[in-house]
Specification:
The complex is a heterodimer of chains A (about 425) and B (about 160).
Chain A: H1 2-12, H2 19-23, E1 32-33, E2 36-37, E3 39-40, H3 51-64, H4 74-93, E4 102-105, H5 108-123, E5 129-133, H6 142-151, E6 154-158, H7 171-174, E7 179-185, H8 197-206, E8 210-214, H9 226-229, E9 233-237, E10 248-252, H10 254-258, E11 270-273, E12 278-280, H11 294-310, H12 312-331, E13 336-338, E14 350-355, H13 360-369, E15 372-373, E16 375-377, H14 382-388, E17 393-397, H15 404-420
Parallel strand pairs in A: 3-15, 5-6, 5-7, 7-8, 8-9
Antiparallel strand pairs in A: 1-2, 4-10, 9-10, 11-12, 13-14, 14-17, 16-17
Helix pairs in contact in A: 3-11, 4-11, 5-6, 12-15
Chain B: H1 3-8, H2 11-18, E1 31-37, E2 42-51, E3 54-63, H3 66-79, H4 84-98, H5 128-147
Antiparallel strand pairs in B: 1-2, 2-3
Helix pairs in contact in B: 2-3, 3-5, 4-5
The chains are: A alpha/beta (about 425), B alpha+beta (about 160).
Protein backbone atom coordinates (compact mmCIF):
# COMPACT_ATOMS: atom_id res chain seq x y z
CA UNK A 1 0.00 0.00 0.00
CA UNK A 2 2.86 2.34 0.83
CA UNK A 3 4.40 1.82 -2.58
CA UNK A 4 1.21 2.81 -4.30
CA UNK A 5 0.80 5.91 -2.19
CA UNK A 6 4.30 6.95 -3.07
CA UNK A 7 3.53 6.41 -6.71
CA UNK A 8 0.50 8.65 -6.43
CA UNK A 9 2.54 11.36 -4.81
CA UNK A 10 5.23 11.23 -7.44
CA UNK A 11 2.56 10.88 -10.11
CA UNK A 12 1.10 14.24 -9.29
CA UNK A 13 4.25 16.11 -8.41
CA UNK A 14 6.27 18.30 -10.76
CA UNK A 15 4.14 19.08 -13.79
CA UNK A 16 1.07 18.22 -11.79
CA UNK A 17 0.07 15.00 -13.46
CA UNK A 18 1.95 12.02 -14.75
CA UNK A 19 -0.21 9.27 -16.21
CA UNK A 20 2.83 7.07 -16.79
CA UNK A 21 3.45 7.00 -13.04
CA UNK A 22 -0.23 6.51 -12.32
CA UNK A 23 -0.20 3.55 -14.69
CA UNK A 24 2.23 1.81 -12.35
CA UNK A 25 -0.46 1.66 -9.69
CA UNK A 26 -2.65 -0.55 -11.90
CA UNK A 27 -1.33 -4.12 -12.07
CA UNK A 28 -3.69 -5.09 -14.91
CA UNK A 29 -2.16 -2.47 -17.20
CA UNK A 30 1.04 -4.50 -17.27
CA UNK A 31 -0.78 -7.29 -19.07
CA UNK A 32 0.01 -8.18 -22.64
CA UNK A 33 -2.91 -8.93 -24.94
CA UNK A 34 -2.15 -10.85 -28.10
CA UNK A 35 1.51 -9.95 -27.78
CA UNK A 36 0.99 -6.23 -27.25
CA UNK A 37 1.02 -4.15 -24.08
CA UNK A 38 -2.62 -3.60 -23.14
CA UNK A 39 -4.04 -0.23 -24.12
CA UNK A 40 -7.26 0.00 -22.16
CA UNK A 41 -9.70 2.43 -23.76
CA UNK A 42 -13.00 1.11 -22.44
CA UNK A 43 -13.16 3.30 -19.37
CA UNK A 44 -16.69 4.53 -19.95
CA UNK A 45 -17.78 0.90 -19.46
CA UNK A 46 -15.66 0.34 -16.37
CA UNK A 47 -12.29 1.58 -15.20
CA UNK A 48 -9.40 -0.53 -14.02
CA UNK A 49 -8.60 -0.67 -10.30
CA UNK A 50 -5.41 0.54 -8.63
CA UNK A 51 -3.65 -1.82 -6.22
CA UNK A 52 -4.87 0.23 -3.23
CA UNK A 53 -8.49 -0.59 -4.12
CA UNK A 54 -7.82 -4.30 -4.53
CA UNK A 55 -5.81 -4.22 -1.29
CA UNK A 56 -8.70 -2.56 0.53
CA UNK A 57 -11.02 -5.46 -0.37
CA UNK A 58 -8.46 -8.00 0.74
CA UNK A 59 -7.68 -6.11 3.93
CA UNK A 60 -11.36 -5.83 4.75
CA UNK A 61 -11.91 -9.58 4.48
CA UNK A 62 -8.69 -10.52 6.24
CA UNK A 63 -9.04 -8.09 9.15
CA UNK A 64 -12.48 -6.59 9.52
CA UNK A 65 -15.20 -8.76 8.01
CA UNK A 66 -18.49 -8.69 9.94
CA UNK A 67 -22.05 -7.62 9.29
CA UNK A 68 -22.68 -3.95 9.80
CA UNK A 69 -24.75 -1.89 12.23
CA UNK A 70 -26.17 -4.26 14.81
CA UNK A 71 -23.17 -6.20 16.01
CA UNK A 72 -21.78 -5.59 19.46
CA UNK A 73 -18.35 -7.06 18.89
CA UNK A 74 -15.15 -5.40 17.74
CA UNK A 75 -15.25 -6.62 14.15
CA UNK A 76 -18.85 -5.46 13.70
CA UNK A 77 -17.98 -2.03 15.03
CA UNK A 78 -14.94 -1.75 12.77
CA UNK A 79 -16.85 -2.98 9.71
CA UNK A 80 -19.63 -0.47 10.41
CA UNK A 81 -17.11 2.32 10.83
CA UNK A 82 -15.36 1.44 7.56
CA UNK A 83 -18.66 1.12 5.71
CA UNK A 84 -19.99 4.43 7.02
CA UNK A 85 -16.73 6.32 6.59
CA UNK A 86 -16.98 6.04 2.80
CA UNK A 87 -20.37 7.72 3.05
CA UNK A 88 -18.70 10.57 4.93
CA UNK A 89 -16.10 10.86 2.18
CA UNK A 90 -18.76 10.96 -0.56
CA UNK A 91 -20.34 14.01 1.07
CA UNK A 92 -17.50 16.45 0.31
CA UNK A 93 -16.61 14.64 -2.93
CA UNK A 94 -19.88 15.77 -4.53
CA UNK A 95 -20.49 18.61 -2.07
CA UNK A 96 -23.66 17.19 -0.58
CA UNK A 97 -25.02 18.90 2.54
CA UNK A 98 -25.04 15.87 4.83
CA UNK A 99 -24.46 12.14 5.07
CA UNK A 100 -28.22 11.43 5.30
CA UNK A 101 -28.41 12.33 1.62
CA UNK A 102 -26.03 9.58 0.49
CA UNK A 103 -27.73 6.24 -0.25
CA UNK A 104 -25.71 3.17 -1.18
CA UNK A 105 -27.07 1.28 -4.19
CA UNK A 106 -25.70 -1.37 -6.54
CA UNK A 107 -24.92 1.31 -9.09
CA UNK A 108 -26.41 4.08 -11.19
CA UNK A 109 -29.07 1.81 -12.68
CA UNK A 110 -30.41 0.76 -9.29
CA UNK A 111 -30.23 4.35 -8.04
CA UNK A 112 -32.43 5.59 -10.88
CA UNK A 113 -34.82 2.66 -10.51
CA UNK A 114 -35.04 3.43 -6.80
CA UNK A 115 -36.26 6.93 -7.61
CA UNK A 116 -38.68 5.70 -10.28
CA UNK A 117 -40.19 3.02 -8.04
CA UNK A 118 -40.52 5.18 -4.92
CA UNK A 119 -40.64 8.92 -5.50
CA UNK A 120 -41.84 8.45 -9.08
CA UNK A 121 -44.82 6.24 -8.21
CA UNK A 122 -45.73 8.50 -5.32
CA UNK A 123 -45.66 11.71 -7.30
CA UNK A 124 -46.28 11.11 -10.98
CA UNK A 125 -49.87 10.97 -12.21
CA UNK A 126 -51.75 10.78 -15.48
CA UNK A 127 -51.46 14.07 -17.34
CA UNK A 128 -48.07 14.88 -15.79
CA UNK A 129 -44.99 15.13 -17.92
CA UNK A 130 -41.61 13.45 -17.50
CA UNK A 131 -38.86 15.12 -19.52
CA UNK A 132 -35.71 13.27 -20.52
CA UNK A 133 -33.30 13.69 -23.45
CA UNK A 134 -32.52 11.86 -26.66
CA UNK A 135 -29.03 10.98 -25.41
CA UNK A 136 -30.01 8.93 -22.36
CA UNK A 137 -28.47 5.58 -21.51
CA UNK A 138 -31.11 2.84 -21.23
CA UNK A 139 -30.70 3.10 -17.44
CA UNK A 140 -32.18 6.61 -17.51
CA UNK A 141 -34.67 5.82 -20.26
CA UNK A 142 -36.44 2.53 -19.62
CA UNK A 143 -37.47 3.30 -16.00
CA UNK A 144 -39.27 6.41 -17.30
CA UNK A 145 -40.85 4.66 -20.30
CA UNK A 146 -42.27 2.10 -17.88
CA UNK A 147 -43.39 4.67 -15.32
CA UNK A 148 -45.05 6.78 -18.01
CA UNK A 149 -46.92 3.72 -19.27
CA UNK A 150 -48.01 2.74 -15.81
CA UNK A 151 -49.15 6.17 -14.69
CA UNK A 152 -50.42 7.60 -17.95
CA UNK A 153 -47.86 10.40 -17.71
CA UNK A 154 -46.39 11.82 -20.90
CA UNK A 155 -42.72 11.18 -21.68
CA UNK A 156 -41.13 14.03 -23.63
CA UNK A 157 -37.63 14.23 -25.04
CA UNK A 158 -35.25 17.17 -25.27
CA UNK A 159 -33.81 16.71 -28.78
CA UNK A 160 -30.15 16.85 -29.74
CA UNK A 161 -28.70 18.94 -32.54
CA UNK A 162 -26.41 17.82 -35.35
CA UNK A 163 -23.30 18.55 -33.29
CA UNK A 164 -24.42 16.34 -30.42
CA UNK A 165 -25.50 19.07 -28.00
CA UNK A 166 -28.93 19.28 -26.44
CA UNK A 167 -31.12 21.47 -28.61
CA UNK A 168 -32.50 23.86 -26.00
CA UNK A 169 -34.35 26.24 -28.34
CA UNK A 170 -37.75 24.90 -27.32
CA UNK A 171 -36.84 24.04 -23.74
CA UNK A 172 -39.30 26.50 -22.18
CA UNK A 173 -42.15 24.63 -23.86
CA UNK A 174 -40.75 21.15 -23.28
CA UNK A 175 -40.31 21.67 -19.53
CA UNK A 176 -43.81 23.04 -19.02
CA UNK A 177 -46.05 23.48 -16.00
CA UNK A 178 -47.24 19.85 -16.22
CA UNK A 179 -43.65 18.64 -15.82
CA UNK A 180 -43.03 16.78 -12.56
CA UNK A 181 -39.58 15.41 -13.31
CA UNK A 182 -36.64 16.18 -15.58
CA UNK A 183 -34.15 13.30 -15.78
CA UNK A 184 -31.00 13.70 -17.83
CA UNK A 185 -27.42 12.64 -18.13
CA UNK A 186 -24.64 14.94 -16.93
CA UNK A 187 -22.29 13.54 -19.56
CA UNK A 188 -23.33 11.35 -22.49
CA UNK A 189 -21.72 7.91 -22.60
CA UNK A 190 -21.86 7.95 -26.42
CA UNK A 191 -21.39 11.56 -27.51
CA UNK A 192 -19.29 12.70 -24.56
CA UNK A 193 -21.45 15.84 -24.35
CA UNK A 194 -21.47 17.63 -21.00
CA UNK A 195 -24.96 18.99 -20.47
CA UNK A 196 -25.81 22.32 -18.77
CA UNK A 197 -27.52 20.53 -15.90
CA UNK A 198 -27.51 23.53 -13.54
CA UNK A 199 -29.35 25.71 -16.05
CA UNK A 200 -31.86 22.96 -16.77
CA UNK A 201 -32.33 22.40 -13.03
CA UNK A 202 -33.12 26.07 -12.62
CA UNK A 203 -35.84 25.93 -15.26
CA UNK A 204 -37.22 22.66 -13.86
CA UNK A 205 -37.46 24.21 -10.41
CA UNK A 206 -39.16 27.30 -11.79
CA UNK A 207 -41.82 24.94 -13.13
CA UNK A 208 -42.10 23.15 -9.81
CA UNK A 209 -40.48 20.01 -11.17
CA UNK A 210 -37.71 17.88 -9.66
CA UNK A 211 -34.49 17.06 -11.49
CA UNK A 212 -32.58 13.78 -11.50
CA UNK A 213 -29.07 13.75 -12.97
CA UNK A 214 -27.41 10.57 -14.23
CA UNK A 215 -23.81 11.24 -13.26
CA UNK A 216 -22.31 7.85 -14.15
CA UNK A 217 -19.98 9.43 -16.72
CA UNK A 218 -19.44 12.72 -14.89
CA UNK A 219 -18.42 12.02 -11.28
CA UNK A 220 -15.42 9.87 -12.30
CA UNK A 221 -14.08 12.49 -14.68
CA UNK A 222 -14.61 15.99 -13.31
CA UNK A 223 -15.44 17.92 -10.15
CA UNK A 224 -19.17 17.63 -9.44
CA UNK A 225 -21.05 19.84 -7.02
CA UNK A 226 -24.61 18.60 -6.52
CA UNK A 227 -25.59 21.72 -4.62
CA UNK A 228 -24.24 24.09 -7.27
CA UNK A 229 -26.25 22.10 -9.82
CA UNK A 230 -29.17 22.11 -7.37
CA UNK A 231 -29.93 18.50 -8.31
CA UNK A 232 -32.76 16.86 -6.42
CA UNK A 233 -31.39 13.41 -7.22
CA UNK A 234 -27.93 12.55 -8.53
CA UNK A 235 -26.79 8.99 -9.33
CA UNK A 236 -23.39 7.44 -10.04
CA UNK A 237 -21.45 4.17 -9.94
CA UNK A 238 -18.31 3.15 -8.10
CA UNK A 239 -16.85 0.90 -10.77
CA UNK A 240 -16.49 3.71 -13.32
CA UNK A 241 -14.26 5.61 -10.86
CA UNK A 242 -11.66 2.99 -9.83
CA UNK A 243 -13.98 1.25 -7.36
CA UNK A 244 -15.43 -2.25 -7.55
CA UNK A 245 -18.64 -3.26 -9.30
CA UNK A 246 -21.87 -3.56 -7.36
CA UNK A 247 -21.61 -0.32 -5.40
CA UNK A 248 -23.08 3.01 -6.39
CA UNK A 249 -24.60 6.12 -4.92
CA UNK A 250 -27.91 7.85 -5.00
CA UNK A 251 -27.74 11.41 -3.70
CA UNK A 252 -31.10 12.91 -2.81
CA UNK A 253 -32.03 16.13 -1.03
CA UNK A 254 -32.88 15.30 2.55
CA UNK A 255 -36.35 16.83 2.56
CA UNK A 256 -37.30 14.87 -0.58
CA UNK A 257 -35.91 11.58 0.73
CA UNK A 258 -37.80 12.11 4.00
CA UNK A 259 -41.08 12.30 2.12
CA UNK A 260 -40.26 9.29 -0.05
CA UNK A 261 -41.34 5.74 0.76
CA UNK A 262 -38.70 3.02 1.11
CA UNK A 263 -37.60 0.98 -1.91
CA UNK A 264 -36.90 -2.52 -0.59
CA UNK A 265 -38.35 -3.88 2.63
CA UNK A 266 -36.43 -6.00 5.11
CA UNK A 267 -33.71 -5.71 7.69
CA UNK A 268 -31.95 -2.43 8.46
CA UNK A 269 -34.54 -0.16 6.87
CA UNK A 270 -36.94 -0.34 9.83
CA UNK A 271 -37.13 1.31 13.23
CA UNK A 272 -39.80 -0.73 15.05
CA UNK A 273 -41.66 -3.76 13.78
CA UNK A 274 -44.92 -5.18 15.10
CA UNK A 275 -47.01 -8.03 13.74
CA UNK A 276 -49.12 -5.60 11.78
CA UNK A 277 -47.16 -2.38 11.35
CA UNK A 278 -43.64 -0.97 11.02
CA UNK A 279 -41.94 2.37 11.26
CA UNK A 280 -39.10 3.24 8.95
CA UNK A 281 -35.51 3.79 9.92
CA UNK A 282 -33.91 7.21 9.57
CA UNK A 283 -32.06 8.35 6.49
CA UNK A 284 -29.99 7.04 4.84
CA UNK A 285 -30.71 3.51 6.11
CA UNK A 286 -34.42 3.73 5.24
CA UNK A 287 -33.34 2.98 1.67
CA UNK A 288 -30.76 0.30 2.49
CA UNK A 289 -32.63 -2.91 3.22
CA UNK A 290 -30.63 -6.10 3.71
CA UNK A 291 -26.94 -6.67 4.21
CA UNK A 292 -25.22 -4.17 1.92
CA UNK A 293 -22.13 -4.48 -0.28
CA UNK A 294 -19.77 -3.74 2.60
CA UNK A 295 -16.48 -4.50 0.87
CA UNK A 296 -17.71 -2.51 -2.12
CA UNK A 297 -18.24 0.55 0.04
CA UNK A 298 -14.90 0.08 1.77
CA UNK A 299 -13.05 -0.24 -1.54
CA UNK A 300 -14.93 2.71 -2.99
CA UNK A 301 -13.51 4.67 -0.07
CA UNK A 302 -10.01 3.72 -1.19
CA UNK A 303 -10.87 4.79 -4.74
CA UNK A 304 -12.13 8.15 -3.47
CA UNK A 305 -8.90 8.66 -1.55
CA UNK A 306 -6.88 7.87 -4.66
CA UNK A 307 -8.85 10.30 -6.81
CA UNK A 308 -8.78 12.85 -4.02
CA UNK A 309 -4.99 12.80 -3.99
CA UNK A 310 -4.83 13.36 -7.71
CA UNK A 311 -7.55 16.00 -7.56
CA UNK A 312 -10.60 15.98 -9.80
CA UNK A 313 -9.52 19.25 -11.43
CA UNK A 314 -6.33 17.46 -12.54
CA UNK A 315 -8.33 14.47 -13.78
CA UNK A 316 -10.50 16.75 -15.89
CA UNK A 317 -7.52 18.71 -17.21
CA UNK A 318 -5.74 15.51 -18.23
CA UNK A 319 -8.80 14.14 -19.98
CA UNK A 320 -9.33 17.36 -21.88
CA UNK A 321 -5.78 17.13 -23.13
CA UNK A 322 -5.94 13.50 -24.20
CA UNK A 323 -9.42 13.87 -25.71
CA UNK A 324 -8.28 16.86 -27.75
CA UNK A 325 -5.34 14.81 -29.01
CA UNK A 326 -7.57 11.83 -29.83
CA UNK A 327 -10.06 14.02 -31.72
CA UNK A 328 -7.21 15.56 -33.69
CA UNK A 329 -5.64 12.22 -34.60
CA UNK A 330 -8.98 10.57 -35.44
CA UNK A 331 -9.92 13.52 -37.64
CA UNK A 332 -6.83 12.84 -39.74
CA UNK A 333 -8.34 9.51 -40.82
CA UNK A 334 -10.76 10.31 -43.61
CA UNK A 335 -12.54 6.95 -43.31
CA UNK A 336 -13.47 7.68 -39.69
CA UNK A 337 -16.51 9.69 -38.68
CA UNK A 338 -16.57 11.03 -35.11
CA UNK A 339 -19.78 11.68 -33.19
CA UNK A 340 -20.36 14.31 -30.54
CA UNK A 341 -19.02 17.80 -29.93
CA UNK A 342 -15.44 18.74 -30.82
CA UNK A 343 -15.19 21.56 -28.29
CA UNK A 344 -13.38 19.91 -25.38
CA UNK A 345 -14.78 22.43 -22.89
CA UNK A 346 -18.19 20.86 -23.46
CA UNK A 347 -17.31 17.21 -23.75
CA UNK A 348 -15.67 14.40 -21.85
CA UNK A 349 -13.38 11.59 -22.88
CA UNK A 350 -15.86 9.16 -24.43
CA UNK A 351 -15.28 9.31 -28.19
CA UNK A 352 -17.61 7.30 -30.43
CA UNK A 353 -16.80 6.87 -34.10
CA UNK A 354 -17.52 4.68 -37.12
CA UNK A 355 -15.42 3.55 -40.03
CA UNK A 356 -17.07 4.36 -43.35
CA UNK A 357 -16.92 0.71 -44.47
CA UNK A 358 -16.04 -1.59 -41.61
CA UNK A 359 -18.61 -2.71 -39.03
CA UNK A 360 -17.77 -1.59 -35.50
CA UNK A 361 -17.61 -5.19 -34.26
CA UNK A 362 -14.94 -5.97 -36.85
CA UNK A 363 -13.13 -2.80 -35.79
CA UNK A 364 -13.19 -3.82 -32.13
CA UNK A 365 -12.10 -7.40 -32.85
CA UNK A 366 -9.21 -6.16 -34.96
CA UNK A 367 -8.12 -3.59 -32.37
CA UNK A 368 -8.14 -6.30 -29.70
CA UNK A 369 -5.63 -8.32 -31.68
CA UNK A 370 -3.39 -5.26 -31.39
CA UNK A 371 -3.94 -5.10 -27.63
CA UNK A 372 -6.28 -2.10 -27.85
CA UNK A 373 -9.50 -2.58 -25.85
CA UNK A 374 -12.47 -0.50 -27.04
CA UNK A 375 -16.22 -0.90 -26.95
CA UNK A 376 -18.40 -1.53 -29.99
CA UNK A 377 -22.16 -1.53 -30.17
CA UNK A 378 -25.02 0.79 -29.31
CA UNK A 379 -23.59 1.48 -25.82
CA UNK A 380 -26.98 0.94 -24.19
CA UNK A 381 -28.48 3.84 -26.10
CA UNK A 382 -30.32 2.23 -29.01
CA UNK A 383 -32.68 5.13 -29.81
CA UNK A 384 -29.70 7.51 -29.91
CA UNK A 385 -27.81 5.24 -32.32
CA UNK A 386 -30.88 5.16 -34.56
CA UNK A 387 -31.05 8.94 -34.42
CA UNK A 388 -27.38 9.18 -35.43
CA UNK A 389 -28.18 6.91 -38.37
CA UNK A 390 -25.94 4.07 -37.25
CA UNK A 391 -26.60 0.67 -35.77
CA UNK A 392 -23.45 0.65 -33.74
CA UNK A 393 -20.31 2.66 -33.13
CA UNK A 394 -16.84 2.03 -31.81
CA UNK A 395 -16.04 3.95 -28.64
CA UNK A 396 -12.69 4.83 -27.15
CA UNK A 397 -12.89 6.33 -23.67
CA UNK A 398 -10.04 7.64 -21.56
CA UNK A 399 -9.01 7.85 -17.94
CA UNK A 400 -6.20 8.98 -15.68
CA UNK A 401 -3.75 6.29 -16.79
CA UNK A 402 -4.11 6.84 -20.54
CA UNK A 403 -1.45 8.70 -22.47
CA UNK A 404 -1.03 10.18 -25.93
CA UNK A 405 0.97 7.04 -26.72
CA UNK A 406 -2.19 5.03 -26.11
CA UNK A 407 -3.99 7.25 -28.61
CA UNK A 408 -1.17 6.66 -31.11
CA UNK A 409 -1.54 2.92 -30.64
CA UNK A 410 -5.26 3.26 -31.38
CA UNK A 411 -4.59 5.25 -34.53
CA UNK A 412 -1.93 2.83 -35.79
CA UNK A 413 -4.27 -0.10 -35.19
CA UNK A 414 -7.08 1.68 -37.04
CA UNK A 415 -4.79 2.23 -40.02
CA UNK A 416 -3.78 -1.43 -40.01
CA UNK A 417 -7.42 -2.44 -39.65
CA UNK A 418 -8.25 -0.42 -42.72
CA UNK A 419 -5.60 -2.22 -44.69
CA UNK A 420 -6.72 -5.62 -43.46
CA UNK A 421 -10.37 -5.12 -44.36
CA UNK A 422 -9.50 -4.26 -47.94
CA UNK A 423 -9.93 -0.65 -48.27
CA UNK A 424 -6.43 0.74 -48.62
CA UNK B 1 -1.16 -10.54 -38.03
CA UNK B 2 -2.04 -12.84 -35.18
CA UNK B 3 -3.03 -16.44 -35.82
CA UNK B 4 -6.15 -15.94 -33.77
CA UNK B 5 -7.42 -13.19 -36.03
CA UNK B 6 -6.52 -15.01 -39.21
CA UNK B 7 -8.44 -17.97 -37.86
CA UNK B 8 -11.52 -15.76 -37.70
CA UNK B 9 -11.07 -13.74 -40.84
CA UNK B 10 -9.82 -16.46 -43.19
CA UNK B 11 -8.99 -15.45 -46.76
CA UNK B 12 -12.07 -17.24 -48.06
CA UNK B 13 -14.23 -15.48 -45.54
CA UNK B 14 -12.73 -12.10 -46.41
CA UNK B 15 -13.37 -12.77 -50.08
CA UNK B 16 -17.06 -13.41 -49.37
CA UNK B 17 -17.17 -10.26 -47.26
CA UNK B 18 -15.58 -8.11 -49.93
CA UNK B 19 -17.56 -9.62 -52.80
CA UNK B 20 -20.79 -10.99 -51.32
CA UNK B 21 -22.55 -13.54 -53.54
CA UNK B 22 -26.28 -13.47 -53.91
CA UNK B 23 -26.53 -9.74 -53.29
CA UNK B 24 -28.84 -9.00 -56.22
CA UNK B 25 -32.48 -8.28 -56.97
CA UNK B 26 -34.69 -11.37 -57.26
CA UNK B 27 -37.96 -10.19 -58.78
CA UNK B 28 -39.43 -13.69 -59.16
CA UNK B 29 -39.00 -14.54 -55.47
CA UNK B 30 -41.89 -16.35 -53.82
CA UNK B 31 -40.57 -16.57 -50.25
CA UNK B 32 -39.01 -13.83 -48.18
CA UNK B 33 -37.82 -13.35 -44.60
CA UNK B 34 -35.91 -10.74 -42.65
CA UNK B 35 -33.48 -11.23 -39.81
CA UNK B 36 -32.35 -8.66 -37.26
CA UNK B 37 -29.81 -8.76 -34.47
CA UNK B 38 -30.65 -5.52 -32.72
CA UNK B 39 -27.71 -5.47 -30.35
CA UNK B 40 -25.26 -5.90 -33.25
CA UNK B 41 -27.36 -3.85 -35.60
CA UNK B 42 -27.10 -6.56 -38.23
CA UNK B 43 -30.00 -6.69 -40.69
CA UNK B 44 -30.59 -9.24 -43.41
CA UNK B 45 -33.23 -9.59 -46.10
CA UNK B 46 -33.42 -12.99 -47.85
CA UNK B 47 -35.54 -13.86 -50.87
CA UNK B 48 -36.02 -17.31 -52.34
CA UNK B 49 -37.34 -18.50 -55.67
CA UNK B 50 -38.75 -21.92 -54.93
CA UNK B 51 -39.86 -24.36 -57.57
CA UNK B 52 -41.68 -27.04 -55.64
CA UNK B 53 -39.09 -28.52 -53.34
CA UNK B 54 -36.14 -26.91 -55.08
CA UNK B 55 -34.45 -23.61 -54.29
CA UNK B 56 -33.92 -22.25 -57.80
CA UNK B 57 -32.34 -19.01 -56.68
CA UNK B 58 -31.71 -16.90 -53.60
CA UNK B 59 -30.84 -13.30 -52.87
CA UNK B 60 -29.14 -12.18 -49.69
CA UNK B 61 -28.90 -8.54 -48.70
CA UNK B 62 -26.96 -8.28 -45.44
CA UNK B 63 -25.93 -5.12 -43.61
CA UNK B 64 -23.56 -6.15 -40.89
CA UNK B 65 -20.11 -7.21 -39.82
CA UNK B 66 -17.70 -9.22 -41.95
CA UNK B 67 -18.79 -12.46 -40.30
CA UNK B 68 -22.52 -12.04 -40.94
CA UNK B 69 -22.00 -10.79 -44.50
CA UNK B 70 -19.59 -13.60 -45.41
CA UNK B 71 -21.77 -16.26 -43.83
CA UNK B 72 -24.78 -15.04 -45.82
CA UNK B 73 -22.72 -14.99 -49.00
CA UNK B 74 -21.55 -18.57 -48.45
CA UNK B 75 -25.14 -19.56 -47.83
CA UNK B 76 -26.24 -18.01 -51.12
CA UNK B 77 -23.54 -19.92 -52.96
CA UNK B 78 -24.21 -23.33 -51.48
CA UNK B 79 -28.02 -23.51 -51.34
CA UNK B 80 -28.71 -22.47 -54.91
CA UNK B 81 -30.16 -25.42 -56.87
CA UNK B 82 -30.53 -27.68 -53.85
CA UNK B 83 -33.67 -29.17 -52.36
CA UNK B 84 -35.20 -27.75 -49.20
CA UNK B 85 -34.42 -31.00 -47.40
CA UNK B 86 -30.74 -30.89 -48.38
CA UNK B 87 -30.46 -27.25 -47.41
CA UNK B 88 -32.00 -27.75 -43.99
CA UNK B 89 -29.50 -30.55 -43.43
CA UNK B 90 -26.60 -28.27 -44.36
CA UNK B 91 -27.96 -25.54 -42.10
CA UNK B 92 -28.06 -28.01 -39.21
CA UNK B 93 -24.43 -28.92 -39.85
CA UNK B 94 -23.39 -25.27 -39.99
CA UNK B 95 -25.12 -24.57 -36.69
CA UNK B 96 -23.40 -27.54 -35.04
CA UNK B 97 -20.04 -26.51 -36.48
CA UNK B 98 -20.42 -22.95 -35.16
CA UNK B 99 -21.22 -24.33 -31.73
CA UNK B 100 -18.01 -26.35 -31.87
CA UNK B 101 -19.76 -29.73 -31.94
CA UNK B 102 -18.33 -32.80 -33.65
CA UNK B 103 -19.94 -32.92 -37.08
CA UNK B 104 -17.97 -35.79 -38.62
CA UNK B 105 -20.99 -38.13 -38.83
CA UNK B 106 -23.38 -35.52 -40.20
CA UNK B 107 -20.92 -34.38 -42.83
CA UNK B 108 -20.18 -37.87 -44.07
CA UNK B 109 -20.10 -37.47 -47.84
CA UNK B 110 -21.07 -33.80 -47.65
CA UNK B 111 -18.85 -31.17 -49.27
CA UNK B 112 -18.92 -28.09 -47.06
CA UNK B 113 -16.74 -26.12 -49.46
CA UNK B 114 -16.14 -22.55 -48.32
CA UNK B 115 -18.27 -23.12 -45.24
CA UNK B 116 -15.23 -24.73 -43.63
CA UNK B 117 -13.92 -21.20 -43.21
CA UNK B 118 -16.63 -20.56 -40.59
CA UNK B 119 -15.00 -23.01 -38.19
CA UNK B 120 -12.78 -20.28 -36.72
CA UNK B 121 -15.81 -18.28 -35.58
CA UNK B 122 -16.32 -20.79 -32.79
CA UNK B 123 -13.31 -19.28 -30.99
CA UNK B 124 -15.14 -15.94 -30.82
CA UNK B 125 -18.30 -16.70 -28.79
CA UNK B 126 -19.92 -13.30 -29.26
CA UNK B 127 -19.62 -13.61 -33.04
CA UNK B 128 -21.37 -16.96 -33.41
CA UNK B 129 -24.74 -15.26 -33.58
CA UNK B 130 -23.42 -13.11 -36.46
CA UNK B 131 -22.54 -16.20 -38.52
CA UNK B 132 -25.87 -17.80 -37.60
CA UNK B 133 -28.13 -14.93 -38.65
CA UNK B 134 -28.51 -15.83 -42.34
CA UNK B 135 -28.89 -19.56 -41.61
CA UNK B 136 -31.55 -19.03 -38.96
CA UNK B 137 -33.39 -16.55 -41.16
CA UNK B 138 -33.40 -19.08 -43.99
CA UNK B 139 -34.44 -22.00 -41.79
CA UNK B 140 -37.34 -20.02 -40.33
CA UNK B 141 -38.48 -19.14 -43.85
CA UNK B 142 -38.28 -22.68 -45.21
CA UNK B 143 -39.88 -24.25 -42.14
CA UNK B 144 -42.77 -21.82 -42.24
CA UNK B 145 -43.25 -22.71 -45.88
CA UNK B 146 -43.22 -26.45 -45.08
CA UNK B 147 -45.64 -26.01 -42.18
CA UNK B 148 -47.68 -23.35 -43.94
CA UNK B 149 -47.19 -20.91 -41.03
CA UNK B 150 -46.71 -17.19 -41.12
CA UNK B 151 -43.13 -16.04 -40.82
CA UNK B 152 -42.09 -13.71 -38.08
CA UNK B 153 -38.79 -11.90 -38.35
CA UNK B 154 -35.81 -13.94 -37.23
CA UNK B 155 -33.04 -13.21 -34.78
CA UNK B 156 -30.10 -15.05 -33.27
CA UNK B 157 -30.04 -12.83 -30.21
CA UNK B 158 -32.08 -13.77 -27.15
Amino acid sequence: MEVSEKAIRTGISGKGFNPERIKEDFPILRREINGYRLVYLDNAATTQKPAVVVDAIRHYYEHTNANVHRGLHTLAEEATAAFESTRDRIVPFINAAKREEIIYTRGTTEAINLVAYTWGKQNIRSGNRIVITQMEHHANLIPWIMLAKETGAELTYIPIDEKGYLDLRDIENIIDSRTILVALTHMSNVLGTINPVAEIAQLAHRRGARILVDGAQAVPHMPVDVRAIDADFYAFSGHKMLGPTGIGILYGKEEILNETNPFNFGGEMISTVHWDRVTWNELPWKFEAGTPNIEGAVALGAALDYLGKIGMENVRAHEKEITAYALKRLSELDHIKIFGPHDIDYRGGAVAFVDRDVHSHDVATFLDTRGVAVRAGHHCAQPLARLLGVTSTTRASFYIYNTNDDVDRLIEALKAMRKYFRHE
Amino acid sequence: MSDKLDNLYRDILMDHYKFPRGNKPLPMANLENEGHNPSCGDDIVMRFKLDGDKIEDVSVDCMGCAISVASGSMLAEIVKGKSVEEVLKIAKVVKAMLKGEDISTETNGMDLGDLEALRGVNKFPVRIKCALLSWTTMMDALKSKLNDNNITNSTTEQ
